What does this fold into?
Amino acid sequence: MNPPLESFAPAKINLALHVTGRRADGYHLLETLVVFACNGDRLTAQRGDRDSFEITGPFAQDVPSGEDNLVLRVRDLMREHFSEAADTPVRLSLEKNLPVASGIGGGSSDAAATLALLGQFWSIRNKADAIARIAFRLGADVPMCMTARPLVAHGIGDEINMVADFPEFPLLLVNPGVPLATPAVFKALMSRHNPPLPSLNGKSRGEVLDWLASTRNDLEAPALALRPEIGRALGALKAQQALFARMSGSGATCFGIFESIEAAERAARAIAEEHPGWFVKATTTMPAAQETVIG
It folds into this structure.
């Protein structure tokens, strides 16, 4: 039997997230600076006698295994669109290392990784437009996650500008062990018409940190109102001398930017010792693309 194909699904971190409006159909308009971490879920695909799906990893018990699972939705949509090519039974496995409903795009990143993985497994080539349409059907975050590089997204997340030469940052991800549904956070949002992101000019670490200080996550306040534990996570990061700390996405995961990966790892040990039930992970951001691509 051939060895399984593998795909990595990195955590998606919203360094800044501004809610700038709301469309008539109810979708919120956003401007967000996104990076991806060198920590995430892993997927494998292997030929089988029949389709199957296995979930392992520390957060396996929190993942739906039925038709609501995005990995299975990707498989079924690809079968629908590429029926002739996608006829081989596939054994899929998801190693779930990221907490569920935590504001770091775990499900969306899993979907993006599965699209790439099954495209390779079924040898689906020269179908980028069709695969992009499938990605968008699965949620606005999925096209972002297919890039896995620093980007600024506008609209409902469908207008993507890659950010070239963006610095890599040591990060510490902290989740206080509470799930938080995105719709509930948006429902609690007081203002849906806020100023857009300022222009990102400098690309050094110091310049980006100064820029971040002038930005917001407009979902942080409503998330804190729903889950006060987020404030404890932010406080723990600040107590460990993070250069910058903020909630990612709709929460409840928070991130701290540190001077070095060694500093992030020291902070991780201290926070994990004080809060053994929390998700605590020191990591770095994935490197930027080498050129700017407007999507």
The beta strands are 5-22, 28-47, 52-56, 90-95, 151-154, 159-162, 170-175, 244-247, 254-257, 279-284. The CA atoms of residues 241 and 258 lie 8 Å apart. Residues 290-295 have pLDDT under 50 and may be disordered. The chain has two domains: 5-161, 162-284.
